[in-house]
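Batch job 17 of 40 flagged for manual review because the log was empty.
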Amino acid sequence: MIECFRSGQTVNKLLMAQGEKRGPLGDILQLAKEKQVPVSFVTREVLDQHSETGRHQGVIALLAGTSYVEFSQILTDAKSQANPLIL
């Protein structure tokens, strides 16, 4: 979870288990406050519903969607680079 914040990924909202504010979850809560990410304290049942595997460790991040670029735009952008590499 901390890596989501460090990587610059846009986190829309955090769902955190009620009463979990210490240890690593406290660190995550502090980062959310610094990044002005809304936090909702919910029951573990709500977290279970949002988790595909049921393994959420007391916190779930709701992330912004990924934006896609047309392949033609990738080619156009690559032409402006000295040594473009497209994989």
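Reviewer: the log was empty due to a logging misconfiguration, but the result itself is present. The longest strand covers residues 11-17. Unflagging and moving on to job 18.
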